[in-house]
Each structure stands twice: as C-alpha cells, then as structure tokens.
Write a structure and sequence with these properties.
One of its GO terms (biological process) is proteolysis. This is Secernin 1. With 140 residues, the chain is an alpha+beta fold. The protein is built from two helices and ten strands, in the order E-E-E-E-E-E-E-E-E-E-H-H. The chain has a domain of 83 residues. The chain is 14% helix and 26% strand. The strands form four sheets. Strands 3-8-9-10 form a four-stranded antiparallel beta sheet, with helices on one face. A two-stranded antiparallel ribbon has the order 1-2. A two-stranded antiparallel sheet has the order 4-7.
Length: 140
C-alpha cells in the first residue's frame, strides 16, 4: 500500500487575500473513502466538574467553550481543522518522532485541535492554554 501523501496548511494575508481577509486552509491525507463532516457547534456553558468525551478518553470540561466550525472524520470527536468565533484557526499536522507512541488510550492530535478551538479566544493565549490543559502525552 502506498504511503499517504503529506498534509499541509496554508494561510494567505492581505494583499494576497482580497478585501483585507485572512484565508486559512488545509488539505487532508485521510483515506479517500472516509467521510469528512463540516460541523458547527454553538458556544456553551458547562457544569462545574463535568467531563467531555473525546475520541478515546474523557477529560475535564472547561466552564465555557466558544462557537466553532470544524472539519472532521465522521468517526471521531476531534477535528482535522477549524476556526472559532474569535477567528482562531488550528489544524492537525502529522509529525515524525523517535519516541514510541504510548500503548494506553490517550488524546489524539485531532482532539487537541478541537479542544484548542473551543477554548482559545486569541492566538497569544494558545501556547500556555494548551500546555496547561494537555500537560500529559497525546498520540496521533
């Protein structure tokens, strides 16, 4: 079987993008016959100490999540790419590593993408918020 083609993200800023807009996009290296959904989730308030069911594990829910529009494989909770109501865009990218993947169930990279979009309201907040939220290992 041939290896999957790489996936790439791109962003276009003015003046390359018209009308002062920023354009964000990504191709996908997912299987051709896998259903991809484009889904919108409204902003929501959540009960204290509630959990969110990710693809394989549950994690603590935050008090409030932002509205998001994501593209995702239909079978999983996370997202290939998307944007939230504040214009924060995030996409999943495959990486190569020398460290072996854990054998236990964990968050997928796509789960991190969806969680990040639901919680972040400025790009500056991205790095510390994800570090604090996901200080344990994830797997792709």
């Amino acid at each position: 079987m041939a290896a999957a083609p790489p996936s790439y993200c791109f962003v276009a800023f003015p003046p390359r993008a018209k009308d002062g807009l920023v354009v964000f996009g990504k191709n996908s290296a997912r299987p051709r016959d896998e259903v991809q959904e484009v889904v919108y989730f409204s902003a929501a308030d959540h009960e204290q100490e509630s959990k969110v069911e990710c693809t394989y594990i549950s994690i603590d829910q935050v008090p409030r999540t932002h509205a998001i529009m994501i593209s995702r494989p239909a079978w999983l909770w996370g997202a290939e790419m998307g944007a939230n109501e504040h214009g924060v865009c995030i996409a999943n990218e495959a990486i190569s590593t020398r460290e072996p993947a854990t054998e236990t169930e964990a968050l997928l990279g796509m789960d991190l993408v969806r969680n990040g979009q639901g919680e972040l309201h400025t790009p500056v907040r991205r790095s510390w918020a994800l570090k604090e939220r996901f200080s344990h290992k994830s797997r792709n």
